[in-house]
Amino acid sequence: MQTESLPAGWAPFDYTPRTRLVFGANAVEKVGALAAELGAKRVLLVTDKGIVTAGHAARVEHLLQSAGLGVVTFDAVRENPTTRDVSDCVKVARAAGTDLFVGLGGGSSMDTAKGCNFILTNGGQMKDYWGVGKATMPMLPLIAIPTTAGTGSECQSAALIADEHTHQKMACLDPKVAARVAILDPELTVSQPPRVTACTGIDAIAHAVETAVTKKRNPLSMMYSHEAFKLTVTSFERVMTHPLDLEARGRMLLGAAFAGTAIENSMLGAAHSAANPLTAHFGVVHGQAVGLMLPHVVRFNSADPATRRAYAELASAPEIACVSEGEEQAVEALIARLNKLLNIAGMPRSLAECHVKREMIPTLAEEATKQWTATFNPRKIVVADFVRLYEAAFAARPDGE
Ligand SMILES: [Zn+2]
Asked: How far apart are alpha carbons 401 and 390 in whole angstroms?
């Protein structure tokens, strides 16, 4: 008997949770016991200077030492880590005889630790692992401790490393590179500067919105997208106005981790494809670049009926809208809420404000079309569409029009 194929929203999935989540205020206190449990003797703590200044690195070093473990710290992580950053980290890891990584900080710290893990255990260069499942040898365990509520890297089996020269971002995916444990401690996120809270928070919200509609979306990924959207969209304003509110911080942190889990299962879409060339050519911070493009991408995608329905359902999860009152209305309510949050974040709302050169739009559009994430966008998107999206974003006003 001939059966119909499953409709949009029912993409196949094969999911094993790889990362143990340990959530709670002061959960970081458990890092020594968790590392010892994983058999560690010599830990490489991978972090950045800001985290050292905030005092988190010294605290984690002390916690690991108190559990009888040797610790060496690599604190030279930079934003959007490159192949050079990974090589520097590998030298330190090799000299230290590392047998476990702790990635402490934002997505860049976790990605640098993951990139280092690839090279230390499997040899070669980062580009050898660009793609899916290229590592053949076992890898070392990683404990991820995010101090921002953003990338969700702690729940992903991917390292995002840029080529030092071309700035091309290479997504290196492998189940073995996923963190064994993610420690989600909202206390650690309180120290973020307001601009970091804003950029990473918007990124997390964009992850929830994009994963909710991709071609690969399925009932499991949508469960994570919807919960992530609910948690983040209802607490973003609060963390901006009341940065010490631990519950709001906890909601953002958990929302970002759930959105990361959604990415693991459904990938991302055209807002991320359009954002990467803006970062590569004009140094626009990732969260800002994604935020600039997101409302325009939602409007573009909502021309597709199944995607419009998926956006309407997403907007209904935190009761921004109600699907039964009309899908188009729900999508408009979603776009209005995104615009409001972007304004609360104090983000530039037009490409012109970010000093993007208008004559570069054709080049940006070419590059956006080649991004891997574009292939998962729910509506087919070609160069001319990206040109229109960039043009719309070029001189957009804060209401998004
Ligand atoms: Zn992102």
From this structure: 13
Binned at pLDDT 50, 70 and 90, residue 388 comes out as: very high
How many other β-carbons are positioned within 10 Å of the β-carbon of residue 262? 31
9: CB partners within 8 A, 6+ apart: 217, 218, 219, 222, 306, 310
C-alpha of residue 200 to centroid of ligand 1, in Å: 8
CB contact at 8 A, 72 and 98: yes
Q: Rounded to an integer, what distance in angstroms lies between the CA atom of residue 183 and that of residue 26?
A: 10
Using an 8 Å Cβ cutoff, are 106 and 150 in contact? yes
| Nearest C-alpha neighbor of 141 from the set 180, 84, 107 | 180
Nearest-CA neighbor of 144 among 177, 98, 173?
Answer: 177
Amino acid at position 171, single letter: A
Report CA(4)–ligand 1 centroid distance (Å). Answer: 35
CA of 207 from ligand 1 middle (Å) equals 6
The rounded Å distance from CA 97 to ligand 1 centre is 33
CA 65 – ligand 1 centroid, Å: 34
pLDDT over 70 at 400, yes or no? no
Share of the chain above pLDDT 70, in %: 99
Residue among 189, 180, 226, 184 nearest 207 (CA): 226
pTM over 0.90: yes
How many A from CA of 151 to the centre of ligand 1? 6
The token pair that represents 270 in the structure block: 């055209």
Condensed to tens digits (0 to 9), the pLDDT of residues 196-246 reads 999 999 999 999 999 999 999 999 999 999 999 999 999 999 999 999 999
Q: How far is ligand 1, taken at its centre, from the CA of residue 386, in Å? A: 18
Residue 311: pLDDT band (50, 70, 90) is very high
263 Cα: distance to centroid of ligand 1 (angstroms): 10
pLDDT above 70 for 401: no
Distance 265 CA to ligand 1 centre (A): 15
pLDDT at 103: 98
Q: What is the pLDDT of residue 78?
A: 95
What are residue 172's DSSP bridge partners? Answer: 131, 159
Using the mean position of ligand 1's atoms as its centre, give its distance from the Cα of residue 287 in Å: 6
Q: Is the pLDDT at 129 greater than 80, yes or no?
A: yes
Alpha helices for 22-106 (secondary structure H): 31-37, 49-53, 56-66, 83-96
Distance 206 CA to ligand 1 centre (A): 7
